[in-house]
Design goal:
By secondary structure, the protein is mainly alpha-helical. The chain is about 45% helix and about 5% strand.
Amino acid sequence: MCQHLVQRQSVTRNDHPTCHSRLRSIKYALALVSNVSSNRHLNVNTSDFDVDTLSTGSDTTPRLPGQREIDMNNPDTLTGRFVDKVRAIDFASLPSAAIEVARHVVLDTFAVALAGKNETQGIGRITSEYVRSLGGAPQASVIAGGFKTSMHEAAYANGTLAHALEYDAAWHPPNHPASPTIPAIFAIAEHHRLSGARVVEALVAAFEVQARVRLAATGMPAGEGFHKLGTTGLFGAVTAAARLLDLDRRQTLMAFGIAGGRAFSLAINIGTMTKSTYAGHAARMGIESAMLAKLGWTATDDVFGPRGFFDAFMPGDYDLGMLLDGFASPLRMVSPGVALKAYPSVYYTHRAIDAALELRSEFSVDPRGIERVEVRFPRIDYVDRPQPQTGIDGKYSVQYTTAAALLDGEVTPHTFTDARLHATDMGALLPRVSAVIDDAIPADLARMFVITEVWLKDGRRFTRRVDKLSGWPGERGLTREQQLRKFMAGARGLMRVEDAQRVIELVDRLETLPDVVEIMDILRCSDASAQATG
């Protein structure tokens, strides 16, 4: 009918300016309607519109000068090519090493989420109370919460818990691949009763995407500007959700575009409760973006292209080649691999912790006899915090973590309570610990080193240089025994020992499970107070 209207106007048209203007308006409106119905995004300069270029005898939708079409079948956009590579990942072709890493990071994420429930500032308690107050269909479990809620709210809660202690998996460039993705994956998989193989496939794809976006984001420095969890982490979450919800190519492009519109997190909140919510927000928005796309919601089809994510967050300082070059060859979770943290603090402090622990142990250092301590450290300003204000703030202080290691001979979640921060012995030693910034040391997590020197009141001096990072894949990675201890410590007081052991057993054969419902039923910790043992 609309085409007939245009044809009729074309026949009766003359060169009168008014007639020409009316005809142009009719055809311009028709083009708008046609483009909207075809999910095309318009960027139109109406003064350039030429009615004579409008074809009425073909099936091609009229295109206006300056208009960019959204062609979901065109792989030539950067995001289109990227999505094609992501969609090519499938479980059948995964190397065994990737499946093994997947099992490890899943168990580690459950360990830190359980431990996060009892974070002393109240992150776990408030998060559970907040999500419970929202109601929501009982689709997915809140870890250690004793209840179910909607998929996206469960993902928010569990992501926040997983990052509450700064104890979740990390890698290089600095990023947290697990806390924004695994909570989203298990929320969807629990509700839809998806297999363990589907879970592993989604996890591998999510990790590769998050790694690639982080590699390309060269202008996203650690501890400044925008934080990684709510930006690069969100793309990992939406990747997993798109895979598990069976989005097609067009829907996946839309999900990425929607997620780009939700990407945001400020690094200024490092050292506060709010930082932990960045992981939860990413997990929740990943699910929401995929669900909306599956229902037909539209967005840009080239979120990584011109004027997109990279231009918005780090204009002029990115490397788009890193999105595609060497994608999944090998998978980043295999090489360089994923680090499982030994201590619940920002990863930049771990070498200094190791140095302090080694000096204390090897030389039987009595903290009461320490005159002063110097930690020679690269220029990473956000971990130079000589006077942290709270226990959480102490997680980002190289001075506090060093002092705690020397005093206690260990660094655990209890290190970062307000009570420990304000204890008398900490008050005596912390002012004696200083960070000496050395610009000759690379400010790079993988290549940096620290040199810690301890002067004693009796005149002795001890020095320790640490190059290799504890928890890093390879010779310094956590052993199986250390991983199990970490999980059992997180589960302590929340579930029976036999239930914790059952979770370990199930995760150890995750890729063979018909679904993950039993895992989540246990982790929900229903009636935890009645079941738990020390």
